Description:
Elements: H1 5-9, E1 17-21, H2 25-33, E2 38-41, H3 45-48, H4 60-71, E3 78-82, H5 92-104, E4 110-114, H6 120-128, E5 133-138, H7 144-147, H8 156-171, E6 176-180, H9 187-193, E7 198-201, E8 209-212, H10 214-217, H11 234-250
Parallel strand pairs: 1-2, 1-8, 2-3, 3-4, 4-5, 5-6, 6-7, 7-8
Amino acid sequence: MKTTTRSLRALKGVRPIVCLTAYDTVTARIAEEGGADLLLVGDSVGNTVLGLPDTVGVTMDMMIHHTAAVARAKPAALVVGDLPFALAHDSFPKLLGYARRFLQEGGAQAVKIEGGATLAPAIAKLVDAGIPVMGHVGLLPQRVHAAGYRRRGLTAEDQVRLLADAVAVAEAGAFAVVVECVDAKFMPALTAAVAIPTIGIGSGQGCDGQILVLHDLLGLTPQPPPFVRPEAHLHRDAVAAVRRWAGRVRRPSSRR
Ligand code: KIV
């Protein structure tokens, strides 16, 4: 049965929610068959598969291209497209246009937006327009040039800010919120304070669900973040497979 924003939201307090990134039909099928509830077409596609240094260079056209490829796998999991760098701060008509592209051209069922309380009014208007929104607070990779990749929620002051951000996003009508690299000791309080599922990445166990970049989980990225324990070593295994085949090609007497 197709996961909807409503069925996903209803999982809070019932069972942990499993989320993974997917960037194309192949990775969507892997995540779907592996049992993911939600597939995020993350703008991490930029640094994970497109060779960019970070997510800042990712554009709407790139995101639509990858979201449509994920949707073509026809997953039962909820497909969420990630709004690229700074676009949430455009005028509302433009923002609505971007969100509409994710649903109409990309085939996503929802849009993820990085940012907290300052974006709550825009999130509320998108939700009112029928666009389901997933929030994203804590470490915001799109702000790497402004704030770096530092862990969040380590001081009382930052915890108050994080709480305000998560509550504002939830009250604006988001159906779930990603919480990235927040102090694990603070996460149970944050999860208890919001009515929607918290989906953690590098934020410990006190979340309603977890999300990882699939390529990190599968051992396809050279240096996964320290909180990821790869469950496979596909880069190593793929290189070995290519070497075996290349060896057979170069030895004319061997079988191909
Ligand atoms: O872009 C992405 O993949 C993300 C996840 C890491 C949450 O935002």
